Amino acid sequence: MGTKNCPETPRQKMINMMYLVLIALLALNVAAEVLESFRIVDASLIQTLNNVSRKNEQIYSSFDAAYILNPTKVKEWKDKADQVRKKTGDLTINIKELKEELVMRSGGIPLKTADSDYIFSPELPFITTSKGDTIVIRREDDLNVPSEIMITQKKAEDLKKSINEYRDFLISNLDEGSALRESIIKQLDTSDPPVSLKEGGVKKTWEILHFENKPLIAVLTLLSKMQIDIQNAETNIISTLFSQIDAASFKFNRLGARILAKSTYVLEGDQFEAEIFLAAEDTTQQPEIFVGNTKLSMRDGMGIYKATATKAGTFKWDGLIKYKNPEGNYVSYPFKGEYQVGKPTATISPTKMNVLYLGIANPISVSAPGVASETLEVTFSNGRIEKSGSDYFVYPAKVDGLGKNTTITVNAKMNGETRLMGSMPFRVKEVPPPLATIGGLNGGTIRKEDFLAEDGVFAELKDFDFDLKFKVTQFDVNLTGAGGYVRLYKSISNKFTTEQKDQFNRITTGSLVYIDNIMAKGDDGQPARPLAPISFKIR
Description:
Layout: H1 10-26, H2 32-69, H3 71-105, E1 109-110, E2 126-128, E3 134-136, H4 144-152, H5 155-171, H6 179-187, H7 206-211, H8 216-247, E4 256-261, E5 265-266, E6 271-279, E7 288-291, E8 294-295, E9 298-299, E10 302-308, E11 313-324, E12 330-341, E13 347-350, E14 355-357, E15 362-367, E16 376-380, E17 383-388, E18 391-396, E19 407-414, E20 417-425, E21 427-429, E22 435-437, E23 444-446, H9 448-452, E24 458-460, E25 470-480, E26 486-491, H10 498-506, E27 512-522, E28 529-531, E29 534-538
Parallel strand pairs: 5-12, 14-21, 23-29
Antiparallel strand pairs: 1-3, 2-3, 4-6, 6-10, 7-8, 7-11, 9-10, 11-12, 13-15, 15-18, 16-19, 17-18, 19-20, 22-24, 25-26, 25-27, 27-28, 27-29
Helix pairs in contact: 1-2, 2-3, 2-8, 3-5, 3-8
């Protein structure tokens, strides 16, 4: 997987831009508004970090599932992924412990040891340790402790060394010159900045640039950004490793006869056709394939067998593949097959679309010409299927984007026997995420009067055939005011709060309204999902 498959989201771009602006403001004055802005950015970074962590855990779960199905094929790549998981975990825990030390040395209050009369307010800045404990930050503007720990005690130098070792380990799993390799080198770059003539030509190190004379909250925000960079690099690497599982499956260690039939069930008057080939083809020589005493014609290394179906029934056939080994001797590989001939055939068709969706009832029509519907047995390989009148409703259990593990099979009971009527693979997808809208708009420029007339944020599922509704359960409003300071106002419903509406009345032409941390829950029974942020410019 290249870097183009893991693009930087608009939310991440905005967070990076806000961080650069705040660093610039520090050179002027460590004002309360600047510290508040750093808190907002750090909170957004932590939320993004949690999302990346959940994504990585899903990939590791996919490794575990694939390993259970085929340990031999998956082991090499799973072992490498486990190494990445351990080294990433060690580095991120190291950064968390570094945050904890910085906060505690600056007078932080651990809630588990606080006095019984201490009242904790969620509005207070805090960090969560690697053990899940909460520490309240007391001195966000502390300039001494970060410099002492990171520069004087050389903790920044140790951190730089750990990042370099982690980066070198990751790129050791990638080919020289690959786009992903270059991206990770740039993403985890710890080189010293170039000398700036505007700053007197004084050479600065990476450590001094990031940690000397910076307030505590700025250092914590920077460390959060480093955690995201590390875990984004982890995502790219383990995704690449997972993609290699199938890429490596082309290797073989034995020869065997294979039959690839276009269909094992044909109608009277049609032809049965199958391709017979030797698994693990050698392009320098062709095998000889016989069915009975008849030598088959070859096409792309495969023998083509055809038989005309003249009557209903089950027909068996067999043959030999003769192949010359490296010693020059012919080795025979026998094979057997069978096909069915019959008049009936099953028809399986989705009533709305050619895919199934997770978490909702998917209507399916099933029929078999010449067979009574009461005799049909319909099974589903990925979840459950329920009959409703003459139709069926399918409830998939898990996502199957390629349709490799999701099949609807139809059998019929005829003359005391169960006969296969047909089967069809389906893809299973998640319901697409809705778009967050205000007044039907997903962002852009809006008149202040039109904006004030709206009641809240809504979730719209566009171009989706099922009647599925989503409702926004929370969102944050970020308003950019004078001086570039950003204020955050929360809502725990889909409606604007009184405080938010009061702030909207004060905004002026050219103001930016940025809405993020949007969560919406659908009536498909799935957990609430995050929606992409939206922004409006007031005119």
